Methylenetetrahydrofolate--tRNA-(uracil-5-)-methyltransferase TrmFO (Agathobaculum ammoniilyticum), 434 residues
Amino acid sequence: MSEFVTVIGAGLAGCEAAWQLAQRGVNVRLHEMKPEKRSEAHHADDFAELVCSNSLRSDELTNAAGLLKEELRRLDSLILACADAHRVEAGGALAVDREAFARAVTGKIKSHPNIAIISGEVTEIPEGRVIVASGPLTSDALFEAIHRKVGGDFLHFFDAAAPIVTAESIDMDSAYAASRYGKGTADYINCPLNREEYDAFWNALTTAEEAPVHGFEDSKVFEGCMPIEVNARRGYDTLRFGILKPIGLPDPRTGRDPYAVLQLRRDNAQGTLYNLVGCQTHLKWGEQKRVFSMIPALQNAEFMRYGVMHRNTFLDSPRLLDATYALRADPRIRFAGQMTGVEGYIESTASGWAAGVAAACETQGRPMPALDRQTAVGALACYISDHTVTKFQPMNINFGIIEPLGYKIKGKREKNLKISERALAKIDSLKGEL
Ligand SMILES: Cc1cc2nc3c(=O)[nH]c(=O)nc-3n(C[C@H](O)[C@H](O)[C@H](O)COP(=O)(O)OP(=O)(O)OC[C@H]3O[C@@H](n4cnc5c(N)ncnc54)[C@H](O)[C@@H]3O)c2cc1C
């Protein structure tokens, strides 16, 4: 068996896996196809690119997403360290300056003496120990190679990214800073709509022209990243009860909650860019400009990036993988990241951490301590290997962690905190062995 481990893809999972291996003294060959070749959603040259939102979601210990982050911090995660170092204000969430964050990860990876970067597309699964972390937009040639290896059908669903506008182009006479229910600092820019404006916006949105995406149908959209136009078509008020919910966001000029509100979240540390929260879309670019500019605060908005939609691919993990992310039929090959069916930045990072540590333990001939279901990192790993993935419903944090850990989603703050404390104590006790 080779002395080094090959990691394919320098996204969130691949960088985390490479870092954990390298920190344990294992040599890594990290392959990345950018900048030579890019998926439709990747634009930047740096590693660990956040392709849509700049938020890694909640950072509070009363929920599973926050627990997962705290565990990863204590487990010396590179991604968490860089995210903490480049966070931007976002209430109780961990949001980052995406460029500074990606630059920091890239710098750390490139300067690690145990990591060799190999630029270019991988088209075959190499010999030796491998971690495939090529993400939901794995290149076609590698996709085919994986297909030949694992057989059967890949599962897939569709996902979309939200537009980003410049701060200076937001009409602040029509907007106001606030966070919902006045919690924390006023980190969001809120763009209110009255009834007539909402009506016009909804009508334009539901009839606007979409960009053609091969094989796309509304029924195959992942609920957690639903394009706003698909969501809007479900009913006149769907947006007002969802991403445009006005409750708890009174307009200081009237003292009342508006009819609907679009929130904008800071996208970089300087505060020069803002993303349209929840507005992932696959409308044609001209249509995006036309429709979103109907929101008064965005009437002169300058779009720095438009929303796009893509096919996302993932494996039938419960059938194919074990709880160390290894291929049951050929355990020298591990998968990590969204390709395993875990959905989201932080979940992808956690799977990269676990696959990297497992591969390091194996390379060094020592057992991988079981993290089991008492920890969020362990629950996710167990879950990928024993849950039945249903078509177009990838595993996400709600099912992957909340369910095995016994978290309650609503109104069980104290119970959840106890679960978190137990999980963190377990992490602390195992740290030396990992
Ligand atoms: C359009 C879109 C929007 C999303 N929005 C969100 C969101 O808002 N919030 C959230 O939490 N999650 C979101 N996700 C999910 C999130 O992107 C993923 O969960 C996470 O980035 C996956 O991490 P990863 O490391 O598995 O893959 P990626 O981060 O995609 O990294 C994979 C890397 O592999 C490289 N690569 C691919 N093929 C090859 C090859 N053949 N050879 C060499 N290199 C290769 C790619 O260039 C890339 O750098 C979104 C995903 C997509 C596609």
Q: What stands out?
A: The chain is about 35% helix and 20% strand. The pocket of flavin-adenine dinucleotide is lined by residues 8-14, 31-34, 39, 41-42, 51-53, 121-122, 133-139, 142, 159, 161, 225, 310, 312, 337-339, 343-345, 348 (CB under 6 Å). The mean pLDDT is 89. The longest helix spans residues 345-363.
